[in-house]
């Protein structure tokens, strides 16, 4: 495979990584469509991963319904679907690698002890007497971790100020989202991440883990999220309705319009393949709306 000067594969690899906590809603359809078009418009590959890392949050049947809806949307993925629930060995290897360089430490604090601010470093230099290890945290420092987002521009955080040493293995033994995401994206050779801007504040933590693990850094594009009439981001928690397979053409048309690529009005109701074929040669990531 050929590489450009940044070391990225010349063929872009994008992905969509839904958590199966319910059916797709219009906001997640927008993220799926944007990442699909962004990869495919450049002749790239597009992968599907089911982020079923957190069984307590999972809804039975949601993963299959999501897959069915993506089919109905015409968003065909390459290769096998990756399930995070089957990737435990890769995560254990990454935790061992972090441990080997002294980047992690066991923490005995409960959420209530830490409070809402950054982690105060209580167990950083060893568990205080009488505390037993609950979670595993990764050390952060005072470096500014920044990146150029393709939509939002420069974005940076100091992790010591923002969150402090953060959890990579939870008290219930489950691997934290940030670790799983960087391990999986690197294993799949993902070069281009396109996802909702609600995830941008988690990106510096992911860059920190990539650096510690010696993994390549993909490019990032955090697109504006869809909001309801009250201005609240669509989510399961906000009561956003699910997009079922039968509604795929309407949902796709609306997603393209949201992304600044509204097909001509006579194309409303056209089959999904026609809508995607219309959008592919026109695809460009749009800047966020003024005021966002
Ligand atoms: N599974 C995550 C979610 O549904 C997204 C992961 C990602 O795109 O990095 O919020």
Q: What does it look like?
A:
- With 292 residues, this protein is of the alpha/beta class.
- Helices cover 30% and strands 16% of the residues.
- It has helices at 26-40, 62-72, 88-100, 111-114, 159-162, 177-187, 203-213, 248-258, 272-279; strands at residues 13-16, 45-50, 82-83, 104-107, 135-138, 144-149, 153-158, 166-169, 192-196, 219-223.
- The strands form four sheets. Strands 1-2-3 form a three-stranded parallel beta sheet, with helices on one face. A three-stranded antiparallel beta sheet has the order 4-5-8. Strands 6-7 form a two-stranded antiparallel ribbon.
Q: What's the helix-strand series?
A: EHEHEHEHEEEHEHEHEHH
CATH topology of the domain at 9-86 and 226-292: Rossmann fold
Number of helices: 9
CATH C-level label of the domain at 9-86 and 226-292? Alpha Beta
End-to-end Cα distance, whole Å, is: 39 Å
Estimate the global geometry from the Cα principal axes. Answer: elongated
Quickly describe the structure.
This protein has helices at about 25-40, 60-70, 90-100, 110-115, 160, 175-185, 205-215, 250-260, 270-280, and strands at about 15, 45-50, 80-85, 105, 135-140, 145-150, 155-160, 165-170, 190-195, 220-225. By secondary structure, the chain is α/β, with parallel strands linked by helices.
Which descriptors would you attach to this protein?
disordered C terminus; three-stranded parallel sheet; three-stranded antiparallel sheet; alpha/beta; about 30% helix; about 290 residues; 9 helices; Rossmann fold; binds glutamic acid
């Amino acid at each position: 495979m050929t590489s450009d000067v940044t070391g990225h594969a010349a063929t872009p690899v994008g992905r969509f990584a839904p958590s199966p906590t319910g059916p797709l809603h219009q906001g997640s359809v927008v993220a799926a469509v944007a990442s699909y078009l962004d990869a495919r418009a450049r002749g790239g590959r597009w992968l599907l991963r089911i982020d079923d890392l957190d069984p307590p949050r999972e809804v039975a049947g949601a993963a299959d319904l999501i897959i069915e809806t993506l089919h109905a949307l015409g968003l065909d993925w390459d290769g096998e679907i990756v399930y995070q629930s089957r990737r435990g060995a890769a995560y254990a290897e990454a935790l061992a690698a972090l441990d080997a360089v002294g980047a992690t430490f066991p923490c005995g604090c409960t959420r209530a002890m830490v409070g809402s601010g950054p982690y105060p470093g209580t167990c950083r230099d060893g568990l205080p007497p009488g505390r037993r290890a609950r979670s595993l945290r990764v050390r952060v420092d005072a470096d500014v971790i920044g990146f150029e987002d393709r939509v939002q521009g420069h974005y940076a955080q100091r992790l010591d100020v923002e969150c402090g040493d953060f959890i990579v293995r939870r008290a219930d033994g489950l691997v934290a989202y940030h670790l799983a995401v960087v391990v999986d994206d690197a294993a799949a050779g993902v070069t281009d991440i396109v996802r909702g801007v609600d995830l941008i504040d988690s990106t510096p933590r992911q860059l920190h883990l990539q650096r510690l693990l010696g993994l390549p850094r993909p490019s990032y594009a955090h697109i504006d999220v869809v909001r309801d009439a009250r201005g609240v981001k669509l989510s399961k928690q906000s009561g956003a309705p699910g997009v079922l397979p039968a509604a795929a053409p309407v949902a796709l048309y609306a997603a393209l319009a949201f992304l600044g690529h509204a097909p001509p009005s006579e194309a409303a109701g056209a089959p999904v393949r026609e809508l995607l074929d219309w959008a592919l040669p026109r695809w460009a990531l749009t800047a966020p709306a003024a005021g966002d």
